[in-house]
Every structure is written in C-alpha cells, then in structure tokens.
Design the sequence.
C-alpha cells in the first residue's frame, strides 16, 4: 500500500456540528490563493463518501450526535478525523453548556486536534502535516 | 483479421493499439493534471503537481469500496464499468495521434455520436441506482444536459458531412473521409466564417460533454453535494474518474478529427515513417492541448455555473441557432462561389 499516494491526495469533507462559523471560514481561507492547499493535492469534496479526512468543527450539540456518527460511518476507510477549533476539542466558549453532547472525541475517534478560536490557516495546514506523521506511525505499526 | 480492420501492416496495427489503449488514457490523465495546474495559475495559486490525477486514482484504489444499503447492488457496481468500457470504446473509433482509428473502417461519426451517449447514460444509471436523493437530482440534470447538447452537435456533424459529400464519393460520415477533405480547403471566405461558427459550437458542446463549468449542473458540488457520484467511493469512484478523463480526451480528439485533421509530416516533408509517426503524434498532442485549453481550462476559470434552466436554453435554442447560422453560411457559400 502506497502511503505517499494517499498522503498527497487527501480529499477533505467539512462537517459542522454546531460551531459559530468562525472555524468554517478559516477552513475556507486555507483553500484561497494565499494558502492554496491544493498544491498538496488536498481537495474539498461535497460528500463523506469521497473523503479521506473529516474536518469537524463545533462542540457537537445533542441533535448532531447521530448525524456525526453516521457521517463517520459513511466515510470509507482508511480515514482521518481532524478537529478544528477549541470548542470541538474541549468545549471552548460553550464549555458545560446544557445542550452539548461533545466534545467531539466522546463521539468519534479523533486523530488530530487543532486548537485556536478560531485557529489560523497556518495552524490548520500544520494539523494536516501532523496527520501525515500519524499515518506514517500507523503504517509502521502495520495497521494501515 | 488485419484485412477486416483495413490495416495491412502489423507494426502500424501495434502502434495504433498501444496509442489507443495506453497512450491516450495516460495523456488524458496528464492533461487533466495540466488543466488543474493552469486553472490554479490563472487564479494566482500554485496548484497541484501535474501527476496529481495519478495519485488521486492510486489513492482511490486503496480506499474502501462502499455499496449503500438502499442501492440496487448489481446496477450500482456495473455502472462504473459500463462508463469506463464505453469511453474506451470511443477511442477505437476516433483517429488518435495522427493515425487512423483502430476500427475506423467500420464505424462513422454517427456511431461516435451514439457512443458518446453511453458513458453519460452509465453515470445516470449509477446515479439512479444509488438511491440517494442528491444522486437522483444529479441524474435527472445529466439527462436534461444530454438531451440538450445532442441537437447542436448533430447539426455540426451533418453540415460537415453534407458539404464534404459534395466533393467525394466516399461515405462523408466516415472520419477518414472527413480527414481526407478538410472543410477549410473546400469553402470560400463565407464558408470559412460558417466553419468557424461550427467550431465554436462544437467547443461549447465539448464543455457539456465533459461536464465542466459552466455546464457541470449534474455534479454541482455546492448545490447537490457532488450529484451523480455522491454515493460512490473507492474503486468504483476511481473508475468513474478515469472514464470522465478518457471521455474528455476522446471528445477533444473528435473536435480535432472533425476540423483539424492536418498532419505535420507531409508539410515539412519528413519521409521516414517512424520519424513522421512521432512528429504527427506530437503535433496531435499539441492540437488536443490547444482545443482542451480553449474549451475546458480557460472557460472553467472565467465563468461560474449556469442555472439548470439556462443550460438547456443555451444548448437547445442559442447554440442550435448559432450552429444553423454556420451551416446556412456554408450553404450560401456554395451558391455564391
Ligand atoms: S473554536 Fe471558536 S471560532 Fe471555532 S467554532 Fe468554536 S467558537 Fe467558533
């Protein structure tokens, strides 16, 4: 199995679980000419079936729980989950709010956390690089 | 066997087979990479490496291949294969790399017209079979698109064949006959304007055939989440990806075969067959690149997606009228000169 082809052709799907839309805009900024992640082969796709990476934002409100699980299941293996933003990582400004079921790692397994409220585009790109490292480790352990 | 194909030289046959089954898909993928790179450049980005489509396909092949529960299983799995095989069949009937087509002796431009429909039909079947509302909407849009661009395309080919039929006894619908009598040599100034209009029509039809912006209503990621292919993943998706690339390459080669069938080697006087073959092959690649740049890359960067009602209007009314004007001009040219 060729990790290089996989690493350099990541298609990402963006899943909003109730965020304030701040992180979502930063994700779009990553695709603009200034940061241009397409040079690494990264592409934003419209459906989880095409995705290799789930970019999850937001603290997961209660109604999103079955949807998040379903979208995770709909994504074909091998896959990576990246949490973008403080509120997805540990609650952030919504910490201990009455309508939360999250953070995200209580619902689906998370590979990389990108902290920040919202994180800068550079941080998101660094998160992708961290995901590569993680994939390499998985390959060495023979999981992938 | 060889006589059936109308090619008596086994070397020639081998070259043509390699050309249509190996070189054409490889260059199709390379051109898709170049297309993405150029679009990125024109948008002020750096863009993916040119070999990106190869990486995409290799990655898709190692992904899980999911068949959704609600889907019609056999149709869902068969559709990508049908799409790929039908697109590959196209390459057998269209002259590539400055040579004749492998089965060019047995099928004409009308057959190519019908073959062009089959990959789109396979996309539609796959969309309906996947039982997702997004895919169903995408499949319906693809059908509307298919029915819309068929008419101007037919006008172009019929005009061309009827004009060429006047000067030769051979079947004017054969791509070899069209290549032997390029339209530009037959007509006067008025006819040249008409032929240019037909080229324009064909280029607009190519965008629809290749399902690219501004006519990509069937995929429309921002509206219907990838449309037709919404439920496809892994191997099946990679087959569709490849079929799409091959179909675009075949369609552009058809434009080249219909309007620019010239070869470079007779012009510069290269007599040695091998060298002439290489020169012609490279010249063909350049012609394909130019047409692809004009029809797909440039317009894809410059325009946004049309609304669905606009797409059928543009093809059925506007482009058909424009194509008719072109064919009338060629007709008047015949009367005047
Ligand atoms: S981390 Fe901050 S910016 Fe991002 S979605 Fe949560 S609240 Fe909004």
Sequence:
């Amino acid at each position: 199995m060729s990790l290089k082809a996989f690493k350099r052709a990541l298609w990402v799907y963006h899943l909003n679980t109730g965020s304030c839309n701040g992180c979502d805009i930063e994700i779009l900024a990553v695709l603009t000419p200034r940061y241009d992640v397409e040079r690494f082969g990264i592409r934003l796709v419209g459906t989880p079936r095409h995705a290799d990476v789930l970019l999850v934002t937001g603290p997961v409100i209660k109604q999103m729980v079955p949807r998040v699980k379903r979208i995770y299941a709909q994504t074909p293996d091998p896959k990576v989950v990246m949490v973008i933003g403080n509120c997805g990582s540990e609650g952030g400004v919504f910490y201990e709010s009455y309508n939360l079921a999250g953070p995200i790692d209580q619902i689906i397994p998370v590979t990389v956390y990108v902290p920040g409220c919202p994180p800068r585009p550079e941080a998101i790109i660094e998160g992708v690089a961290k995901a590569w490292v993680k994939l390499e480790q998985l390959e060495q352990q023979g999981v992938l | 066997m060889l006589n059936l194909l109308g090619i008596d030289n086994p070397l020639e046959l081998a070259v043509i087979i390699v050309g249509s089954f190996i070189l054409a898909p490889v260059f199709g993928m390379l051109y898709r990479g170049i297309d993405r790179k150029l679009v990125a450049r024109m948008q002020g980005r750096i863009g993916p490496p040119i070999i990106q489509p190869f990486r995409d396909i290799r990655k898709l092949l190692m992904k899980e291949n999911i068949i959704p529960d609600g889907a019609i299983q056999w149709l869902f799995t068969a559709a990508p294969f049908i799409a790929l095989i039908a697109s590959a069949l196209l390459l057998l009937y269209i002259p590539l790399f400055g040579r004749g087509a492998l089965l060019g002796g047995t099928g004409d431009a009308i057959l190519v017209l019908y073959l062009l429909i089959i990959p789109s039909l396979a996309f539609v079947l796959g969309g309906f079979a996947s039982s997702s509302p997004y895919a169903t909407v995408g499949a319906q849009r693809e059908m509307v698109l298919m029915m819309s661009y068929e008419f101007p395309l037919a006008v172009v080919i019929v005009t061309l064949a009827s004009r060429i039929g006047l000067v030769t006894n051979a079947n004017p619908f054969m791509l070899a006959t069209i290549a032997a009598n390029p339209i530009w040599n037959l007509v006067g100034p008025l006819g040249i304007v008409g032929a240019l209009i037909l080229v324009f029509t064909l280029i607009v039809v190519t965008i629809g055939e290749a399902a690219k912006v501004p006519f990509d209503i069937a995929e429309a990621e921002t509206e219907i989440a990838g449309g037709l292919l919404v439920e496809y993943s892994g191997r099946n998706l990679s087959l569709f990806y490849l079929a799409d690339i091959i179909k675009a390459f075949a369609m552009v080669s058809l434009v080249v075969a219909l309007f620019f069938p010239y070869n470079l080697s007779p012009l510069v006087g290269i007599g040695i067959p091998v060298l002439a073959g290489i020169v012609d092959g490279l010249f063909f690649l350049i012609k394909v690149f130019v047409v692809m740049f004009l029809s797909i890359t440039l317009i894809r960067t410059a325009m946004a997606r049309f609304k669905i009602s606009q797409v059928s209007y543009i093809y059925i009314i506007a482009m058909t009228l424009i194509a008719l004007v072109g064919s009338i001009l060629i007709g008047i040219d015949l009367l005047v000169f």
